[in-house]
Each structure stands twice: as C-alpha cells, then as structure tokens.
Design brief:
Elements: H1 3-6, E1 28-31, E2 36-39, E3 42-43, H2 44-50, H3 53-62, H4 68-80, H5 86-94, H6 101-112, H7 124-149, H8 163-172, H9 178-190, H10 198-208, H11 213-224, H12 232-243, H13 249-254, H14 276-292, H15 296-309, H16 312-316, H17 323-334, H18 341-362
Antiparallel strand pairs: 1-2, 2-3
Length: about 400
C-alpha cells in the first residue's frame, strides 16, 4: 500500500456527508425511517398539539419546558428585543425593491451586528441576549422590507402580542386575525429546529472557528436561501398556482413524465415516510379554509398528494409529503407574499440555529472534515513553452 492510499479517507455513501455523524447533540432527534422528530426529547406532534412557538423557543434554548413564571419572563424579555436600529430601516429603504427578500435579510442580519453592543462577546450570557434580539429583529426586518417595497412605512412592534401575531401586525397594521395568528404560530413551532440540516451545519461550522453569532446566522441564511433547502417552499406554492384547479392535478402530474421536473414538496433527504410535520401543517391549512372559505390550494395539495402516493415511482422510492408541501398553502392563505416564504422559514429556524451555535461553543472543536481525493498524484512539471 502506498503512502497516499494509506491516508485516503472513506467517502460518505452517496456524497454530501450522508450517514456521517459529525457532532453530538441533544437539541433535536430525527428518525427518518419511522417519521419521528423530537425537540429535546418531546415529539413534535405533542408539541404542536399542546405548545406555542415561544414556549418551544424556551425549550430549545434551555433544554427544558418553562414554568408559567419562566415563560412570562421569557415573553417579556423577547418582546423588549423587537426594536430595530433606525439605521437598518434606512438601509432597507435604499435596497432595490425587487431584491430577493432572503438576500435582504442576509444583509440586514450582518448589519445588525454593528449595532449590537455584544456582537463580539461570545460568553453564554451575551449569546442569550443576542439570540433574543435576533428572534425579534429578523421578524421586524421581514415585515419592514415588505412594507417598504409596497411604498408603506414600517410599523412599530406591539408589546401585547405574541411573536406570530406581532409579525402580522407589523406586516399589515391591522389587528391580526386570531386564526391566522394561531396558524402562523404553529408553523413557526414546527419549523424551529431540524438537526444538522445544511443551514444549521453551516452555522455550527462558522461557530466552531470562534466567530460571532451574527456571522454564523448570516452564513445560515445564505445556506437556507438555496432551492435545495429553504427556497423549496416558494417553489411548492408556484407549483400549486401553475396547477390552478383541483381538476387539473392529474393532467399536470402526468404531464411531468419525461420532463425531468420534480413535484415540489414531495420527498425528503432524511424522511422515508411522510414528514411528521406535514400532518399538523395540513390541519392548520384546513382550519384556515374553515375561517376564510378559500379551499382551492388546500384541495390542490390534497389531491396532488393522493395522486403522487398512488404512483409506482413515488411509492418505490418512499417519496412522501415533506414540510414544504403544506407550508406553502398555509403561508399563502395567511396572505404572505410568495417570495417571503423562505424568510418565514428563517423567522422560525433562528431559534434552532442559535441553540446549535450555543451548543457548539459550549464544547467546541474546529469542524474540519477531510475530502476524498479523486485526482492524480505527483504530476511532472512541464515548462510553459512545452505545454500543449
């Protein structure tokens, strides 16, 4: 065996670090074979039925459910963190109105570091403060940019509303509809954390270098922006709009044959059964149908899932509805612009990202994997005049 062969690392099966364990964590657990997702040991379906986004944020940040007094104090602190420096609003006004909202958020989070008094402080207490501020500020940036590009002024947050309801207030200036606020709260709860997905892993890699929280979250946003990760929810809604009516589902589906196009929202890198979050999201879409009377997008989604599950190709490859499939009609029914859907993902996942950064910093070792070399070795040098 040569020297180069002796040090050659084993490649992950299928590439992309598939099946490779890179960290110990007790934040969330995913069992893709059996369709299980747990936050700190609690089944996501139990949390969706009994909890709220703010309570789940406390759980993910503190590794336990809060008492009533602790939850009240957490709400008080998080609501005090909702204010955004005026310089950020000025920057948002100077950005092109046709800019990608995720790119705007990425820039804004990076800028927020300049106005955070603890931005370079990586102590546990400072991390807690910054995580709280980013939770409120990210939602404010989304709402403010949407209003600015419509020609309206940003709206100040309200201290009497929970996170989801306050976002809807800042977006519209109207008292939020209780059912819409509840549906959005459930959405945020269900997407708050999901183990070492691409954006979370990015945040942990950055944190492992000793860099600051804002840098880690900026990197996570860059990863989430990609169509293979967070942007898939926007593409799912565009797909439903293209289908147009429930009656067109089957002709549209069968028309995909041979085109190379995918059914967005069907299939997952980890889950080999239906995503455990999909059921709770579907229930919330049903409730929005009952509240608004608009059922077109729900009916399209339900029919498309039925048709796909009857197809031999989908069944043989264990392709089922994922979190994006019912997130799309839910966010659309609430009245959110399609190009902000990935931003809503980030508005939720900021809780998981900050929990992972803290966990990484608490027991840090620089994340530095190896690559599987596929090139040649010891090539002879050829003078430039002799090269062909």
């Amino acid at each position: 065996m040569s020297t180069t062969e002796a040090v050659k690392p084993a490649a992950s099966k299928g590439g992309g670090l598939a099946g490779v364990v890179v960290a110990d964590s007790n934040i969330s657990f995913v069992d893709g074979t059996n369709g299980v997702l747990e936050y700190r040991g609690y089944d996501i379906r139990v949390l969706a039925e009994n909890s709220t986004f703010e309570e789940v944020a406390y759980l993910l940040w503190n590794n336990r459910l809060p008492t009533a007094d602790e939850l009240d104090e957490m709400k008080r602190q998080s609501r005090a963190c909702r204010f955004i420096p005026p310089e950020i609003f000025s920057a948002l006004r100077n950005m092109p109105h046709n800019a990608d909202p995720m790119a705007v958020m990425r820039t804004a989070v990076s800028m927020l570091a300049h106005y955070d008094p603890e931005s370079e402080d990586n102590t546990p207490l400072a991390h807690q403060h910054k995580a709280c501020r980013l939770l409120g500020q990210i939602s404010g940036v989304i709402a403010a940019f949407e209003r600015i590009r419509r020609g309206d002024d940003p709206i100040k947050p309200r201290m009497d509303l929970d996170h989801a309801a306050n976002f809807l207030w800042m977006l519209t200036g109207d008292d939020p509809d209780p059912q819409a606020a509840k549906a959005l709260d459930q959405y945020l709860l269900l997407l708050a954390e999901h183990e070492l997905n691409a954006s979370t892993f990015t945040a942990r890699v950055i944190a492992s270098t000793g860099s600051d929280l804002h840098s880690a979250i900026t990197g996570a946003l860059g990863a989430l922006k990609g169509p293979a990760h967070g942007a898939a929810v926007q593409e799912a809604m565009e797909q439903f709009l293209e289908i147009g009516t429930p009656e067109n589902v089957e002709p549209w589906f069968h028309g995909l044959a041979g085109t190379g196009r995918r059914v967005m929202g069907i299939g997952h890198r980890v889950y080999k059964v239906r995503d455990p979050r999909a059921g709770a999201l579907m229930v919330n879409v049903q409730k929005m149908v009952e509240a608004t009377g608009e059922r077109t997008w729900y009916d399209i989604a339900r029919r498309l899932e039925e048709v796909a599950m009857q197809d031999e190709y989908f069944r043989s490859r264990n392709l089922s509805a994922n979190v994006d499939f019912y997130s799309a009609p839910l966010l659309y029914s609430i009245g959110l612009p399609i190009d902000t859907f990935t931003c809503m993902f980030a508005m939720s996942r900021i809780v998981g990202w900050t929990a992972h950064v803290y966990e990484q910093q608490a027991n840090n070792r620089l994340i530095r994997p190896l690559s599987n070399w596929t090139g040649e070795h010891q090539l002879p040098w050829v003078p430039i005049a002799e090269r062909k």
